[in-house]
Amino acid sequence: MSDWYKKMSFYQIWIRSFADGNGDGIGDLWGVYDKLDYIRDLGVDGIWFSPIYPSPNADFGYDISDYKNIHPDYGDLEQFQKVLDRAHELGLKVIMDLVINHTSDEHPWFQESRKGRDNPYSDYYIWRDKPNNWDSLFEGNAWEYDSLRGQYYLHIFAKKQPDLNMDNPAVRSEVESILRFWLDMGVDGFREDVINFISKKEGFPNGLPFLPAVNGLPYYKDGPHIYEYNRQFRKVCEQYDCFQIGEGPMTTLQSALKYLSGPQKCLDMMFSFDHMMADCFYTEYMHRPFSLTKFKKAISKWQYGLSGKAWNSLYLENHDHPRIISRYGSEVFWRESGTMLATAYLFLQGTPFIYQGQEIGMTNIRLGRIEHYADVSSRTNFNRYHLKDSMAKRLHRIHVSSRDSARTPMQWDDSPHAGFTVPEATPWFYVNRNYKRINVKMQQGDEKSILNYYKKCLQMRKNSRTLLIGDYIEHLPNDKFVFTYERVWQDIHYLIICSFTRAMVPFRLPDKFEGRHGQLVLSNAGHSHGKEKIRSVGFLKPYEARVYRFRF
Ligand code: NOJ
Questions:
Q1: Does residue 194's CB lie within 6 angstroms of at least one atom of ligand 1?
Q2: Angle value at C-alpha 250, between 247 and 256, nearest 5 degrees
């Protein structure tokens, strides 16, 4: 398999909120078609579609009821083919979300499976007479009693997301057939949802009682047949020039390396989570002030750990996490922190992913009542948080952590509903009120906008071998406010300096660059781009980012 994905960057579409092309208030494939030029102009090379299959939307597409079709809200297979063909004409690859740990409970397989123990689908899911003590990640305990079948089924996520029994060879054949279906249509790869959870420990042992929500994790993560099953799916992909990135919740570097290299290699890249835990545990729990040193430690661990052995995925935002300006930056220093955050991750070694709206600096929405949130995990978490706390305090935690913050309609312009849908329609979800200030149209015409800064960064990556393949070296790791790293290839060095604070902080150069001639090639603070001797003098402005290029 070739490694074209190493030179790429991807744009993630969460379709429901991207662009409504048929005027019903819901994003769709007609809307995507119209925006393909916009995506190409951003400078990315591919699109990852979060699920666009039929789904009752208990988890907005991650509960699939038909793997080989398109949700009627979004279009049909013919419209998908048009989008795919046009994307290819524009030089964009397209990858689909593959969700095979679980289906919807409305999937015909589950509906059949519930009916009894002796039909062809009875073994497609995980049924037991007695549940163990595992908690689900989304809703209560992980087993739900089904009165028709007279047994409990396992659901690691919501009740409406029963886990498939991957130990059943018939289920694995179904997965092979799903892969072939989309590959034959021409898609270029898959983002594989919670792929490290698909093999469960035999006997389903009880988990440790003091690990609420994740007590079963040691028994369903990296389970006994995980590489074998994923190798089986890889073999199908190997027949096509296709690329696979797995989502690996709670994966460790050691375990990721097994998926990504060596004899059991079954994925090209993995989405890891360590760097997303510098202010919380898994976004929704144990919130604490952001620690830049923790963040840098996690980044460096993966940059050094995969170097020469595998390839990193780079992301800060997606449909499961709040917006990064609200999270790590500042809505007051909105432009500064939005551009700094782009600088901080787009020049790392790996393949960057940009989530819709991130490129224009969209921020968190703050809704007044929990009932206004649509996401199943936000609602559960609200009731999981310390119930003794005031409503306001619990709601505040939702404001900082909800997945819905990243799921508000895309802000295209300053017309009604931010141009996401026609004025007469009601958007399916709340539009962030700041759309008159933060929207694509306004930023297209502004040379200094966050949007144009993203374009610049992506162009710089493309034009530089050092930024694409150069080694990563971290500098000044104990600095609590500034992230400083180098990329080096042969005699070309890039030095990336990003301040994560609203305070003025001293500008510090790593010793090896002190007094050398360097050229400032990117600045989010309006500094001129001359070639000069660089010294540790002066200050970095709030959320300032600089990129220098040296030759020595
Ligand atoms: C990870 C997906 O990114 C998330 O949105 C989903 O809820 C869970 N997996 C379950 O499919």
A1: yes
A2: 65
**Does an H or E element contain 299, and which?**
helix 292-306
Cβ distance 407 to 365 under 8 Å? no
- Look up residue 151 and give its DSSP letter: E
DSSP assignments along 345-407, one per residue: HHTSSSEEEEETTGGGT------SSGGG---HHHHHHHHHS-TTS-HHHHHHHHHHH-GGGG-
Question: Which pLDDT tens digit goes with each residue over 370-401?
Answer: 999 999 999 988 887 777 788 898 999 999 99
* Residues linked to residue 111 through DSSP beta bridges, in sequence order: none
The CA distances from residue 25 to 36, 357, 430, 524, in Å, are: 20, 18, 11, 36
Mutation probe of ligand 1 site: the residue of 60, 99, 378 with most atoms within 8 A of C-beta: 99
Relative to the CA of 59, which ligand 1 atom is closest? 7
Tell me if 284 CB under 6 Å of ligand 1.
no
How confident is the model over 322-348, as pLDDT tens digits?
999 999 999 999 999 999 999 999 999
The whole-angstrom separation of Cα 289 and Cα 492 is: 36
- How far does the centroid of ligand 1 lie from the alpha carbon of residue 357, in Å? 19
Point out the ligand 1 atom lying closest to the alpha carbon of residue 138: 7
Residue nearest to atom 5 of ligand 1 (CA): 320
Whether the predicted model's global pTM rises above the 0.90 cut: yes
Catalytic residue numbers?
193, 247
Residue 195 near ligand 1, beta carbon < 6 Å: no
